[in-house]
Design a protein that fits this description.
Distance between the termini: 43 Å
CATH topology: Neuraminidase
Number of helices: 3
CATH architecture: 6 Propeller
CATH class: Mainly Beta
Helix content: 10-25%
Largest sheet: 5 strands, antiparallel
Structural class: mainly beta
Radius of gyration: 23 Å
Shape: globular
Number of domains: 1
Strand content: 35-45%
């Protein structure tokens, strides 16, 4: 028998052994553990924020920026406050590492090569900056990468094959479905990629890079056949909403989109998990890759309630201020009451799902009241996942931070 045949057989045995140790979505369970919240001694940021930057440095959770309404609730006309604190939770508790050059929220967080990269965001202004944080001799160093060629907020992003990829959100204040990338091995400038074919853009979507099998076949070895598959990282987009503009009504995206590296185009690969039942969505939720072909998703707004609110606001913005017809009066009353309902009324998504990229299938891991969030931040350290703060209802943040362990 030729040497290369022996080597192929050995490789196949090793490959099959490795595959046998991988868990399927059906085998996973998860546990929730509440970790120490930011203490009151750190000021109003301890009251909980949404849209913060997060990451892992030296195996410790880092939280930076974010925003909230610390004094007067949003429903009563309170002012939204943005933060620039950079905080870290280690074995001894929370500590302040430093500050961002300005207070920021609603950007994208990337962890790469022991660095944290914060892309875009907003405060009272819209931003295009890209900041880099890392430790040098136990001292936090802050640097920059090339700025975006536009301002960027309320979009999504991830690390994909040594590139930062950002998607959707608002560019220069306008909702888009555009995709841009920055090669971190040669970070000279941002490059435009294929646009997702959704009219009206997608604000507050989710973007995840995860492996997907793109070819399957059998190979004959020693008179028998072995199964051989090839996979590569793909981009997957979930959630988000297209705002109500002009004559077009607002729509919440329920589909899953993936970038096909062979056709070099985005394609719809799955529908929502339950579009005809509770009308949950992942718009405003969070997602993260786990294992080799799974994506964990949680949180987000209710499709029906959110779309009705957005389209009602569009209708009222065009209505005559002196109009007294039944529909206008009804919408005015609903709009006036919208921010005052209890959290349960908004029906934020309390379900935690695993999406299998190979089979385009879903597995419900359970319903958890602590998952019913919008605007939370998420980061993973292997199979330990941190979910940081977020909204319990419009304008109301939670100070709680959760650690999810997948087993």
């Amino acid at each position: 028998m030729k040497l290369n045949t022996y080597l192929l057989l050995l490789f196949s045995v090793i490959l099959l052994a490795c595959n046998s140790e991988k868990k399927s979505a059906e085998e996973f369970t998860l546990t929730w553990e509440e970790v120490q919240a930011v203490p009151a001694s750190f000021g109003d940021i301890s009251k909980g924020v949404s849209a913060a930057f997060v990451g892992i440095l030296d195996d410790n959770l880092v939280v930076a920026g974010g925003c909230n309404f610390p004094d007067v609730p949003a429903a009563e006309g309170g002012k939204k406050i943005f933060y620039k604190d950079i905080l870290m939770l280690d074995d001894f508790g929370w500590k302040k590492l430093g500050e961002l050059p300005e207070a920021i929220a609603y950007g994208v967080s990337i962890t790469y090569d022991d660095k944290l990269i914060f892309v875009g965001g907003q405060n009272d202004n819209l931003l295009s900056t890209v900041y880099v944080l890392e430790f040098e001799d136990d001292v936090l160093k802050l640097d920059t990468l090339p700025s975006l060629p536009f301002t960027f907020d309320n979009g999504a992003g991830c690390l994909h094959e040594n590139k930062i990829v950002i998607f959707g959100g608002n560019q220069n204040g306008i909702a888009v479905s555009d995709v841009w990338s920055l090669d971190l091995e040669n970070p000279d400038s941002w490059q435009k990629e294929s646009t997702l074919p959704i009219e009206g853009g997608l604000v507050q979507p989710i973007l995840v890079s995860q492996s997907r099998v793109f070819s399957k076949n059998t190979k004959e070895v020693l008179g028998g056949e072995i199964y051989v598959s090839k996979s590569m990282p793909q981009l997957f987009a979930f959630g988000g909403f297209s705002p109500a503009v002009d004559g077009r009504s607002a729509q919440v995206n329920q589909a899953v989109w993936s970038f096909n590296h062979q056709s070099l185009a985005w394609e719809k690969v799955a529908e929502g998990v339950n579009p005809n039942e509770e009308r949950n969505s992942f718009s405003g939720g969070v997602g993260i890759a786990v294992e080799d072909s799974l994506i964990l998703l949680l949180g987000g707004v209710n499709q029906q309630i959110f779309e009705e609110a957005l389209n009602r606001n569009l209708y009222l913005s065009k209505a005559d201020e002196n109009a007294t017809d039944t529909v206008t009066q009804k919408y005015r009353k609903e709009a006036a009451e919208y921010m005052y309902h209890p959290a349960e009324w908004y029906r934020f998504n309390d379900e935690v799902w695993l999406y299998n990229t190979n089979s385009d299938s879903w597995k419900l891991l359970g319903k958890y009241p602590q998952a019913a969030l919008a605007g939370a931040s998420i980061v993973a350290d292997d199979n330990v996942i941190y979910v940081v703060n977020g909204e319990l209802k419009p304008g109301i943040r939670t100070p709680k931070i959760w650690k999810i362990v997948l087993e």
